[in-house]
Design goal:
Two copies of one chain form a homodimer.
Chain A: H1 8-26, H2 29-36, H3 40-46, H4 50-75, H5 80-94, H6 103-107, H7 114-137, H8 142-166, H9 170-183
Chain A binds a DNA duplex (30 and 30 nucleotides) through residues 1-5, 28-30, 38-42, 44-46, 50-51.
GO molecular function (chains A, B): DNA binding
DNA-binding region (chains A, B): 28-47
Keywords (chains A, B): DNA-binding, Transcription, Transcription regulation
DNA sequence: TTTTTGATACCGAACGATCGGTAAAGTTAC
DNA sequence: GTAACTTTACCGATCGTTCGGTATCAAAAA
């Protein structure tokens, strides 16, 4: 392997930040080039499919990140409430304490390929499933657990939007504070 | 090519649909031209400030629509629960039963002018205020009413995002169903 | 009533800039 | 040398925007 200026992980995480900040249509190869330090043509060497492939990789990378830092830890043996508290801190980081939009949101606006749409849907469904499982583990019946899981994610996404418009991450922080009550038996 | 004319209201509502569907960056003058029936140059006659001015007009138009169909009716004398039910049906229409993104969401992504950002913030604050007042009217203390108002809007925005990703408006419909319980004393 | 006129609204064509994308040459590591 | 990788240079298309000119219509002038 010869001379790779920037690692795959860095390349992907920096691209993700650009996409999440400017949206799919607002993300230009020039911006990606600036953010990653790679020339446009170099991006095409890494991602022959161009912008669409980068967006898809960002979506899959987001899924992988969630799997590693949220889904899997929630599955490990241990106190559900304790695991949930750890997962919440991971989410706080992921969204930069409510200041960075969600990839699911910005990449799901019209303009993306069907592949991208599917990747986002898969990842979000996996998220719902992970939250459903932890809610069941803490004693809630299946149907109710599922309802609460969706409710939790709805509230995360919504508070990110509201917080962005109001220029105040208070709503997001409150949502994170309420997550344990939503996902475990109150 | 024959002359084409369109009323200010139509012009604005069609532009709003384009912006809400494709986002600020994804909305091109070509798309606006196609959606409104006016040539690009004609759009500049109506909006000398170009795309930014159209987006600002869409934001202010959204605020005006909400004021007329939601905020003001909620202020009129009458049973709070009844007024709320009517407002909910207006919101269902506004979001095309959960299939059309929210203008606050798509216009608040990076790229808009400070003026636009302010207009969105003002409109959302007015929405929160209107929901707070109706919650107070139905017997909730001020602080709790405000909390519930924000919660209601967070849930609307979040369910729109989740529904868009999952390709299923179920979450949005459920949110509307839950709104009375959120905004009035359960 | 008919004609003239001026303001308003609209359009076709073009601007420079930037878009996503490509080909080929140059550089680095093995 | 060769393969992996990056870069310079470039492409056609589209971006937001501008401008000269045309259509429309109401009011004034005939």
């Amino acid at each position: 392997m010869a001379h790779s200026t920037v690692s795959d992980e860095d390349l992907l995480s920096r691209s993700a930040e650009v996409f999440r900040t400017y949206g799919f249509e607002g993300t230009s190869l020039a911006r990606l080039s600036e953010a990653t330090g790679l020339e446009k043509a170099s991006l095409y060497h890494r991602f022959p499919g161009g912008k669409e492939q980068i967006a898809l990789a960002v979506a899959e990378g987001t899924h992988a990140w969630l799997r590693l830092h949220v889904f899997e830890p929630l599955k490990e043996p241990g106190d559900p409430r304790k695991k949930l508290r750890a997962a919440i801190e991971q989410l706080r980081d992921c969204y930069a304490d409510g200041t960075l939009p969600c990839a699911f949101e910005v990449l799901s606006l019209a303009g993306g390929s069907p592949e991208l749409t599917n990747a986002l849907k898969d990842a979000l469904q996996a998220w719902i499933k992970a939250f459903t499982e932890i809610a069941k583990e803490s004693g809630l019946p299946t149907a109710e657990a599922r309802r609460r899981a969706e409710q939790a994610i709805v509230q995360i996404e919504g508070s990110l939007v509201v917080g962005r418009v109001l220029g105040d991450a208070k709503a997001f922080r409150r949502t994170l504070d309420e997550l344990p009550a939503i996902l475990t038996n109150e």
